[in-house]
Backbone:
């Protein structure tokens, strides 16, 4: 039976995660979603794509914040950043990632959305890779947009994005986020018109709902975790499953009949317990379709998936 899997946040800049990714086994009848943060450089993306496409029949990818980073060029033999790549900022870096994905036949948010199907079981779903970024709106009502960075800094929190994720040609990340949300909202409207009854699998690196952001150690990091603009998209567009990453907190939530899957691998230290149990990257793949049955009323308590 063909299966649609997902994983995110491979962070292939870490040698331990590169070694783990090399152990990916063939799933030649299956498909895979890469939900962002493969790494910071095109070299990291190339490793992610080459391994994924060797082992899976179909691969989708969406960018995370790390793919969008503009990393400095050095002449060191160990550097994975080319002099050309070090000049790519904002949209230009994103489009370079899209171009690389297409070299491997990996589907991106810029491509036409395709249907995943299990013909034997009569299952179908439209896989909808998206790119929405964030606009600092995941914050308390008492905190203004102008005060959001200072609010996070009160607890010593500042995202690396503030230094490495540029927004050209847009003036701000907020502006880029809203342009992206308009673009993909339009694409979702058109897709629902084309496929009025088909379940959708929405894929985005950042959570679509603020209530899913639970960062117990760094709660004020929430401002870099999404946008309230997408809050009603899962229900409004008839999603069956929403696949996200970014938080490095694996969990499954059922909200109003929609299953939300956070599918991060994370930094090596964050899945150390799994490795100590004899698990590898194959055990960390999350089944998206067919997936578990929907609970009776469409809601269920959060399932915290510490071990995959």
Residues:
């Amino acid at each position: 039976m063909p299966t649609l899997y997902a994983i995110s946040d491979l962070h292939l800049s870490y040698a331990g995660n590169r070694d783990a990714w090399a152990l990916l086994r063939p799933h030649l009848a299956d498909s895979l979603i890469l939900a962002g943060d493969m790494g910071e450089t095109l070299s990291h993306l190339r490793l992610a794509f080459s391994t994924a496409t060797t082992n899976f029949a179909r691969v989708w990818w969406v960018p995370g914040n790390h793919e969008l980073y503009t990393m400095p060029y050095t002449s060191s033999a160990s550097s994975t950043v080319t002099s050309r790549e070090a000049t790519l900022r904002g949209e230009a870096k994103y489009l370079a990632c899209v171009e690389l994905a297409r070299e491997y036949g990996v589907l991106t948010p810029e491509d036409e959305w395709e249907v995943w199907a299990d013909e034997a079981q009569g299952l179908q779903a439209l896989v909808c890779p998206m790119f929405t970024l964030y606009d600092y709106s995941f914050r308390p009502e008492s905190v203004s947009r102008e005060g959001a960075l200072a609010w996070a800094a009160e607890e010593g929190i500042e995202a690396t994005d503030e230094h490495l994720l540029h927004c050209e040609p847009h003036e701000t990340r907020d502006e880029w986020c809203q342009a992206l949300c308009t673009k993909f909202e339009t694409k979702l409207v058109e897709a629902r018109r084309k496929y009025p009854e088909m379940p959708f699998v929405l894929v985005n690196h950042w959570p679509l709902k603020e209530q899913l952001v639970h960062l117990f150690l760094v709660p004020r990091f929430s401002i870099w975790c999404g946008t309230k603009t997408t809050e009603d998209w899962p229900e409004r567009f008839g999603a069956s499953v929403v696949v996200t990453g970014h938080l490095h907190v694996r969990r499954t939530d059922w909200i109003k009949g929609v299953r939300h899957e956070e599918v991060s691998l994370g930094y090596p230290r964050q899945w150390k317990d799994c490795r100590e149990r004899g698990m590898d990257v194959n055990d960390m793949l999350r089944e998206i379709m067919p997936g578990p049955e929907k609970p009776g009323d469409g809601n269920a308590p959060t399932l915290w998936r510490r071990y995959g």
User: Anything to note?
Assistant: The mean pLDDT is 96. The longest helix spans residues 173-194. Residues 4-304 form a domain with the Purple Acid Phosphatase; chain A, domain 2 fold (CATH 3.60.21.10). The helical segments are 15-21, 42-55, 91-103, 148-153, 161-164, 173-194, 233-236, 272-276.
